[in-house]
Amino acid sequence: MPEGLNAWRLLKGAGVKYVKFVIVDIFGRPKLEILPIDAARDAFVDGIAYDGSSIPAYTTVNKSDFVAQVDTNAIYIETWSGGKTALAFTSTLDGNKPHPMDPRNALKQVVEYAKSRGYEARFGAEVEFFIVRGNPPSLVDNGAYFEGYPLKETMPVIEEIIEQFYLSGIGFTKTHHEVAPSQFEVNIPAADPVQVADQILVFKILAKSVAQKYGLTATFMPKPFWGVNGSGMHIHVSLWRDGANLFASYKEPTPELKSAVAGVLENALANSVFVAPLVNSYKRLVPHHEAPTRVVWGLGNRSAMVRIPYYAQKINRFEYRHPDPSANPYLAFSAILLSAVDGLERKLEAPRPVEEIAYDLQGVRETPKHLGEAAKLATEGITAKMLPQQLVKAYLSLKEREWNDYLANAGGSWDATWNVITRWEYDQYLEVA
């Protein structure tokens, strides 16, 4: 029996009434084709036919008949809406080949490239977000980091999110209140990068849906409030060979870990537009709010761009703190993995790990000042060279347009608005980031 048909029968037998076929756009946002379960049968075998010209930057109207093939290993039940609907991720085809504009295809190809060099990647993600009310948003609680007292409005939302996180098939997780009021963090368990990228999207759909039930908004906008911590999406990375973790050690980082970190740091500025993709992202990347501004690394140092978790002096991964939760996870993961493998293949030497608070360091590279600068730097790194050129060109063009649109609506000046959150940002990002 074809895998697709078997998956369809399992869903129908489980009482699923509707299937949402997920097509990932260039920004990493889900686009959906919704079919009743009986009508979805053929789609699980033959794919979903759709108008590719209506997905941003995918194609032109004269070449717009696309087919998205279902990935039977990436199906999740929307338990938060009663379990009657399933999310089925797809990959778009160009004839019989993966379409180069589909970012999910791009990450799959990067993962396969890493495997061809002998590396199996495992990624995990710490996703931070705010629960807010209205637009412009207002804070819903005044909790602090690891808040222990009951939070009247946000705690019921978080408890339901965590319950549905497991029931929907993502796995086990943990959560806590983050540093800023109304801010929380949820962990996506470490696994294959494509699986984790899918699960980030499922989690965002879940969190937004549950918050809406309470009349609130779960926002993944990086910096919705000035003067408090923004939201990051810290990515934990390990690379394996023949079943052994190349980064596992005690007290001292392995040579492989150092080279991988060196590759990530070397490409950090060029990768910024892929991991911190919004105008608003660069209002998060400011000193003294636990967001990195200096391109350095350190053991247990949360002010550094790359932190080596160092609990009881045990090492098994690196944490890349540059990304935020608005990033397209498929492109962000591609950038991180390509950079780490590049460092390993070239046996790059890492600079000394910093013990100081990184914000105080002088004479080291700093994150781009704004999105316009980040977009210009992208062509200097390995990501822009290794990903499909059609995809890179379209992505950077859209980011340049986004930057220019911001300037046009913010009086033409970054210097006058870098430390305020504008109405334009709320309208563009609050609900869809």
TrEMBL record:
Keyword Magnesium: yes
GS catalytic domain mapped to chain residues: 103-433
Pfam families, alphabetized: Gln-synt_C, Gln-synt_N
Alphabetically ordered keywords of this record: ATP-binding, Ligase, Magnesium, Nucleotide-binding
Classification via PROSITE patterns: GLNA_ATP, GS_CATALYTIC
Cofactor: Mg(2+)
Record InterPro entries: Gln_synt_N, Gln_synt_N_sf, Gln_synth/guanido_kin_cat_dom, Gln_synth_cat_dom, Gln_synth_gly_rich_site
Record-given protein name: Glutamine synthetase
Taxon lineage: Archaea, Thermoproteota, Thermoprotei, Thermoproteales, Thermoproteaceae
Gene: glnA
